[in-house]
Amino acid sequence: MKKRLGIISFFVILFITFIVIWNYSYKKGLEEAYIPIKEQSLDFGIPSEKGVFTRAEFALDYLNMPVDEAHQRSLETYYDNRAYPGAPPSIPHELLKGERGIGGKACLQCHQNGGFVDKFDAYAPVTPHPEMINCRQCHVAQNTQTLFAISNATKIQAPKAGVNNALPGSPPMMPHGIQMRENCLSCHAGPAAPKEIRVTHPERVNCRQCHVPDIREFADVEIFRRTNNHQNE
Ligand code: HEC
Ligand code: HEC
Ligand code: HEC
Ligand code: HEC
């Protein structure tokens, strides 16, 4: 009788442990593999300007960081793997072993805050949009360099840097759109910033206070003639 009781309680314990462990792992499985997206605070005046401040906590570090000349990017290499200005760059490096996910944490471990990656001998550029966690929805891996034939399609010219000031010394206008680029310091500061556009003053933080988007429209006025209003009188 005692033996039987022993065996029964052994199996009861086993069963309870099974339920507990199964329950735990089931709950774990339900958890999102995402980095939680922060709740948007509603008290910010202009949402599109909020991004300007997102990386501001790094501004002083960026200012004091020595420039690593040997590993600088330039606008040329920046545009090398973009189909056209504003297009999502392709992923120029191999993916981590077994990397099948769509992105998220796997990519953010390098691209959220940047930093030097020995394996690729380069600084990881900081993503301006860490909240868009389905990275590979837009960024595709470069699987081949050879399959494509050279065509005579010309690339759309990128806007130029260094020519957007109204006067020498005045703040240049932004020659690019700001959708998905609200986070200025991710491209304009830090070791992965292309050298031509690395900002001398990351610590000023509120970039859009001085830099406005270039939305001028030009009309062809041909030869200008003053209309003489008195003629028709
Ligand atoms: C181990 C760190 C690391 C991981 C993980 C990583 N990257 Fe990168 N990534 C880099 C580095 C370093 C570079 C710069 C390479 C260069 O300049 O040659 C880079 C470059 C890129 C670029 C090109 C950026 C540009 O401006 O041209 C894209 C796009 C990119 N990575 C996307 C991803 C995506 C998507 C994932 C996840 C699937 C990912 N990366 C995972 C380190 C990483
Ligand atoms: C909805 C599409 C989309 C998603 C999702 C997306 N990206 Fe991007 N990404 C873009 C586009 C478009 C650009 C180019 C921005 C530009 O030049 O205006 C870009 C630019 C970048 C750059 C280059 C920044 C630089 O300094 O040159 C990096 C790095 C990057 N993305 C990483 C990521 C990572 C990591 C993820 C996932 C966490 C991700 N992206 C998710 C569309 C996307
Ligand atoms: C995805 C990367 C990226 C982001 C994010 C970004 N920029 Fe730029 N910016 C560039 C590039 C690249 C250029 C050079 C011109 C070009 O190719 O579009 C540039 C040029 C500029 C220039 C002109 C510089 C000159 O010398 O004429 C200004 C000013 C500027 N950006 C301000 C900003 C501000 C302010 C923000 C934030 C609202 C911002 N940028 C966000 C990539 C970026
Ligand atoms: C108080 C006004 C002000 C603020 C705020 C400001 N800038 Fe500037 N910025 C300027 C002026 C003025 C110049 C022109 C400097 C020159 O020609 O010597 C300039 C030049 C630039 C350039 C051209 C390259 C260079 O450094 O000369 C870039 C890129 C740029 N700013 C980006 C930014 C970004 C990104 C921010 C936010 C972190 C920012 N600026 C904040 C006034 C400002």
TrEMBL record:
What InterPro entries does its record include? Answer: Multihaem_cyt_sf
Domain of life, per UniProt, equals: Bacteria
The answer on whether this UniProt entry bears the keyword Transmembrane helix reads yes
List, alphabetically, the SUPFAM superfamilies matched: Multiheme cytochromes
UniProt keywords (A-Z) are:
Membrane, Transmembrane, Transmembrane helix
**Transmembrane: is it a keyword of this entry?**
yes
Which parts of the chain span the membrane according to its record? Answer: 7-26
Provide the protein name.
Answer: Cytochrome C
Q: What is the originating organism of this protein?
A: Aquimarina aggregata
Q: What phylogenetic lineage does the species belong to? A: Bacteria, Pseudomonadati, Bacteroidota, Flavobacteriia, Flavobacteriales
